[in-house]
Each structure stands twice: as C-alpha cells, then as structure tokens.
UniProtKB/TrEMBL annotation:
The chain crosses the membrane at residues 90-110, 122-140, 184-203, 267-288, 294-314, 420-442, 462-481, 502-519, 626-648. This is Uncharacterized protein. Pfam families: PTR2 (PF00854). Belongs to the major facilitator superfamily. Proton-dependent oligopeptide transporter (POT/PTR) (TC 2.A.17) family. PANTHER family: OLIGOPEPTIDE TRANSPORTER-RELATED. InterPro entries: MFS_trans_sf, POT_fam. It comes from the Eukaryota.
C-alpha cells in the first residue's frame, strides 16, 4: 500500500519500479525500490569492509567501526550493494582476528606480562567484546536502527586513526546523520587516541622494542590503565558493531522475493568466508610484522585499510535498505508478562484465538514489523492478548492500556525468544570446543617439532588450515552438498535445514576433539619426558595437527553459518540484531566456560601432588584426556540439542510464502 501511495504521488512509475515486500525503506524513509537498493552490491561492500576492519583491529582494534560506517553507506546501493557488504565483512575480520591473535604478544613483550596473565586478560577481553554485542543489538533494534548503530560503534572503534580528518569526513556527507556522528566523534575519539598515543609514546619504549629478542621496559600503572581503557573502548565499539553488520547485510535482500531470499541465505555463507579470509591476512602477513616488533607499521596498515573502508562505506549510503527501529523490546516483553499475570484468574475459551486481540498487518508494517501468526505453546502468555470487559471499556474510550492488553504479534515475539533459548544454550558447548583452537591447540603445537629444514613454523599460524578448510567447505556445501541434498529430498526445498546443519557441526566437532586427543597420545609417545624447558619436546611434526584444524573449520561452516541464518530467520523483524547478538554471546560464554572448565580440571587433576592434565610441561600431563572430555561433553550436548530441535516450532509470518515448506526447514 505504501508503495502504491508513493506511485500515486508521481514520484515513481507504477509497474516499472517495484517496492520490496518485507517492509524495508530507503534512506529517506520511503518504501525501498527493488532495482535501486540493496541486493549484492550492498552485500559485497559489507563483506569487504568487515574484512578490512578485522585487519585493523590487529593494530588498534579501533578501525573496525570506520569500516562498518563505510560498509553501511555503501551497502544500500543497488544490486551491487550487497557485494559491497561482503567486502566490508572481510576487512573487519582483518582487524578483529589481528587483535585476538597479537594482543597476547603485545601484553607479554610490551607490557611484560606472564603467559598465564596475558592469556587470561585476552580471554576476558574477547569475552567482553561479544558481551557488548548485546548493547549494540539493543540500541539498533530499539532506537537507532542498524545503519546508525553500525556507524556510531564503528567510529568508537576506528576513529583514532583519523583524529585529524574530521573536516574531510564532514565534507563527504552533509546529511543530518553524518553531522550527528561527527558530534559524537568529538566526544568519544579521546579514548581511542589514548590507545594510539599510549602505545607509541609510553608503552613501546625503548624505540624498536617489542620483538622476541628486545622486550620493552617497565611501565607505570597510569600508562597501563590508559591502555586498558582504550582497549575496552575498542571492545565496546567492535562488540556493538558486529551483530548489526551481519543483520544489516541480510536486510539488503527481500526474503519475500524467492530470488532475493535465496541470495540472503547465500549471504551468510560468504559473510563468514570473508571473516575468515580477513583473519588469514591477520594471522600471516600482519602477524609476521608484529612478531618482529614492527608495531608502528602494523598500526599504519590498519589505519590505511580503515580509511579505505570508510570511503567505501560512505559511497553507498543512499542505496541501503533499512528496517525501522521498533522501540524498546524489554518494555514490550515486560508488558506481555505483566498483562498475562494480571489475567491469570480468567478462564480462557477453548477456541481462544478468536477471542484474542490482534492488529491489522498494515498497522504492523507501519512500525517496520510484519504480523506474526498465533501459535500453540506457552498458552499462559496468550492471556496477555485475551480481551476482557475492562479492555472493551478502554477501547470505547479510544485508548488501550499496553500493560493490560497486548496484540498477538507482541505475545508471539516473547514466545519466539523463549523457543530460541534452548537452541542457543546448546551452542555454548560448541563454542568451548572452538576456543581451544586459539589456546590448547597452540600449546600442543609448541610442544611438537615446529621446524622444516631451517624454517620455524609459528604454532599459531596452523590456524591457517582452519581458514582454508572454512573456505573449502563453504564452496563445497553451496555448490555440491546443498544441491545434492535438495535432489535427494525431492521436496523442491533447499538442502539441509539450519537446525540440521548445526547438528552436523556438533558431530564434526566431536570428531575434531577425538582427532586432537589421538594426536596428543601419539605426540606423548615421541616426547622426551625429561625435557622441561626445551622448545621441541617431541619429535612428532606439528603438521599432525592439520586434521584437527581442518575438522574445526568444517564444523564452523555447518554450526556458525547455520547459526547466523537460523537466528536471523527465527527472530521477529524488530529483534533481528538481537538474533545475531545471540551468536556472538554464545562465543563469549564459550570463552568463559572454557576458562572455568580448565580451572576445574586442573584443580581436580592436581590433587595428591600430581602434575595435572594441562601442566606447564605438557609431556608430564594428559592433554589428551581433556580433549576426550570435551568430545564427551559435546556428545551429551548433541543429544540435548536434538531433543530441543525436535521440540522447536518456527516463527510464522503472515503472508510468508511456502509456509508448509518453511515448517519442514526447521525439523531435524
């Protein structure tokens, strides 16, 4: 209707320019025109900028936000706009994984922390990054929208590199949004400048220190405090940006259109691919420079990629598709709970749906949300939509108390989140397995033969096999497995469902842990058990780790890509960013649970003066038992997950095409 009204005003020619059907709008708040907004042009920008941001995080953890800004401005352009979205994700990943991998080196070589303290601080920082994703998702869904939220948090992350470039940014975009962002820039860039200046002026002393042979001198508590203040501002910026950029890229596709709906599914695979390609650059080229102590060069490389991302992002602002923010979800949830509790004494009719309060689909679309159909389950919450005599009297007076009567769509929003929580909880154990790649896998590799001829292989660089595996299995699944499964099913639908893929990811993770445990058993046979301090404590080659890294990469394709698609598809329109934030929070809790599990295992296994399963010298421990423990826990998690997946009931949107097929898409 809104599109037709615009056509009647003469702004667009009816029949030539078709509007999107999912309720997205353009930069001016008008219904988005399909051929002039979104699609793959915006998607590629987002993926490329995300890749650049990750690269920059390696240096400053600051520049991810500029890329996000650049990403959003570009991402809405037109059919090419979604290609830009993919570009953004790749650049952002460069920065993110660069920080995650090299922050340990910075803490040990520059701040002179012990390995244990540095690893603990990095785990806390990484967990905090993803916890902040809930903040970004809340602001995006409630008030700012994904475009503005991404831009603001990207500024928090990146702008330190461009402290002197505010005037040029102002000239690039004279819109009200840009002016608003630049005002925020003046207030928040101080913390990011601290990160840059404190590292260059106070922390990297004497000049040229920070490599393996030349550690830096001592630092005052004030200098260290400034560093931590800066790095946690980076965590805030990155965390707030991440869930929104993935969702914003998906917004560029109209899922009500069969062709664009298929592209939307493909977008998440390429989004994760771009993220991994960005980390490949961070783990190799940028990691080499930082390992040699050339931190300044790394910072400048990050700054350059951030600037390129910013310019790229600003170029497509007018062509992005947007969903309108739908208000505070917490208040909506509380209204449903309170209204249901107030009516707990009322007897619900058997054919209760006809007695429930509902609104027209047109009224829902005006708020940027599609109407959600009523579903069985959590029947107590239906009381919030039950119309009482008091509600009738209120409506006669022309008012409705939202704390006493809620529409069905609002009630179904709460049901959707409650149904998602068991599935989300089952993903945490997988994240525990995934985090071992950056910790115990590296320690295991360091205790193996790491030299080939005269070249020494950094144990952390083995994660490159994980990245290659991710790229291989993404293309294998999309080009081979997905079409093959579709033909076997003969239902006309696409291949494995999101829930099925996540289950496959858990199975592969179990095999990966068993593989790692067997390699450790084999390594111990070759170990010189009287070797306490030597570097190569086993003659077994580090390349024996390739299978476990490759298996983790394969499991990521099924678990994390499926998880992104699942939470994006199964959350209401007003909570899409929250759905992406659930993925990030799962990784965060996985880090925390991993640390807790290691602590508990060491406390139990070191009784009676035993060295424990994971001692300083792995040759005197039993890391293999810890891997087998993780395999056992993941197996239990798989059984629980399958039960939850069978119980799960998918969201039902009014007018959604192929509703029957959609139901099948979420069965295990």
């Amino acid at each position: 209707m809104a599109c037709l009204e615009v056509c009647k005003e003469g702004k667009f020619k009816e029949g030539r320019e078709e509007c999107t059907l999912d309720g997205t709008v353009d930069w001016h708040g008008r219904p988005a025109i399909k051929d002039k907004s979104g699609q793959w042009f915006a998607g590629i920008i987002i993926l490329f900028l995300e890749k650049m941001i990750c690269k920059e995080r390696v240096r400053r953890s600051i520049e991810k936000k500029d890329k996000c800004w650049a990403l959003w401005l570009h991402a809405g352009a037109n059919k090419r706009a979604n290609h830009q979205n993919r570009v953004n994700q790749g650049l952002a990943t460069l920065a993110f994984f660069g920080v995650g991998v090299n922050l340990v080196l910075f803490l040990t070589r520059v701040l002179q922390q012990s390995n244990a303290d540095a690893a603990n601080n990095v785990s806390k920082w990484t967990g905090t990054v993803y916890i902040f994703s809930l903040v970004g998702a809340f602001l995006s869904d409630s008030y700012w929208g994904r475009y503005k939220t991404c831009a603001i948090f990207q500024v928090i992350f990146v702008i330190v590199s461009y402290f002197d470039s505010e005037s040029s940014l102002y000239n690039l975009h004279s819109s009200i949004a840009c002016i608003f962002l630049l005002k925020i820039y003046r207030k928040i860039c101080t913390g990011l400048v601290i990160l840059s200046l404190s590292s260059y002026l106070f922390l990297i002393r004497p000049k040229g220190c920070g490599n393996e042979l030349t550690p830096c001198g001592s630092h005052s508590s004030m200098e260290v405090s400034l560093f931590y203040l800066s790095i946690y501002l980076v965590a805030l910026g990155n965390g707030g940006y991440q869930p929104n950029i993935a969702t914003f890229g998906a917004d560029q596709f109209d899922e009500e259109d069969p062709r664009e709906g298929h592209s939307k599914v493909a977008f998440f695979s390429y989004f994760y691919l771009a993220l991994n390609l960005g980390s490949l650059f961070s783990n190799t080229i940028l990691g080499y420079f930082e390992d040699e102590g050339i931190w300044a060069l790394g910072f400048w490389a990050s700054a350059g990629s951030a600037f390129a991302a910013l310019v790229l992002f600003l170029g497509g602002t007018s062509r992005y598709r947007h969903f309108k923010p739908s208000g505070n979800p917490l208040s909506r949830f509380c209204q449903v709970i309170v209204a249901a509790v107030k009516k707990w004494r009322f007897e619900m009719p058997r054919d209760g749906e006809e007695e429930l309060y509902n609104v027209h689909a047109k009224d829902c679309s005006m708020n940027g949300n599609r109407k959600i159909l009523h579903t069985d389950g959590f029947k107590f919450l239906d009381r919030a939509a039950f119309i009482t005599s008091r509600d009738i009297d209120d409506q006669k007076k022309g008012c409705r108390n939202p704390w006493h009567l809620c529409p069905i769509t609002q009630v179904e929003e709460v049901k959707c989140i409650l149904r998602l929580l068991p599935i989300w909880l089952c993903t945490i154990i997988y994240s525990v397995v995934f985090t071992q790649m950056a910790s115990l896998f590296v320690e295991q590799g360091a205790a193996m033969k790491t030299t080939v001829s005269n070249f020494k292989i950094p144990p952390a660089s083995m994660s490159s096999f994980d990245i290659v595996s991710v790229a291989f299995f993404i293309f294998l699944y999309r080009r081979v497995l997905d079409p093959l499964v579709s033909r076997v099913k003969k239902t006309g639908s696409r291949g494995l469902t999101e829930l099925q893929r996540m289950g496959v990811g858990l199975v592969i993770a179990i095999v990966a842990m068993i593989s790692a445990g067997l390699v450790e058993c084999h390594r111990l046979k070759y170990a010189r058990k009287d070797c306490t301090h030597c570097e190569g404590s086993s003659s077994l080659s580090i390349f024996w780790q390739v299978p476990q890294y490759a298996l983790i990469g394969a499991s990521e394709v099924f678990m994390y890509v499926g998880q992104l698609e699942f939470f994006n598809a199964q959350t209401p329109d007003g909570l899409k960013s929250f759905g992406s934030a659930l993925c990030m929070t799962s990784i965060s809790l996985g880090n925390y649970v991993s640390s807790l599990l290691v602590t508990m295992v060491m406390k139990i296994s070191t009784e009676d003066h035993m060295p424990g399963w994971i001692p300083g010298n792995l040759n005197k421990g039993h890391l293999d038992r810890f891997y087998f423990l993780l395999a056992t826990l993941t197996t239990i998690d798989l059984v629980v997950y399958m039960t939850c997946a069978r119980w799960y009931k998918s969201i039902q949107l009014e007018g959604k095409r192929d509703l029957t097929d959609q139901e099948d898409n979420f069965r295990v």
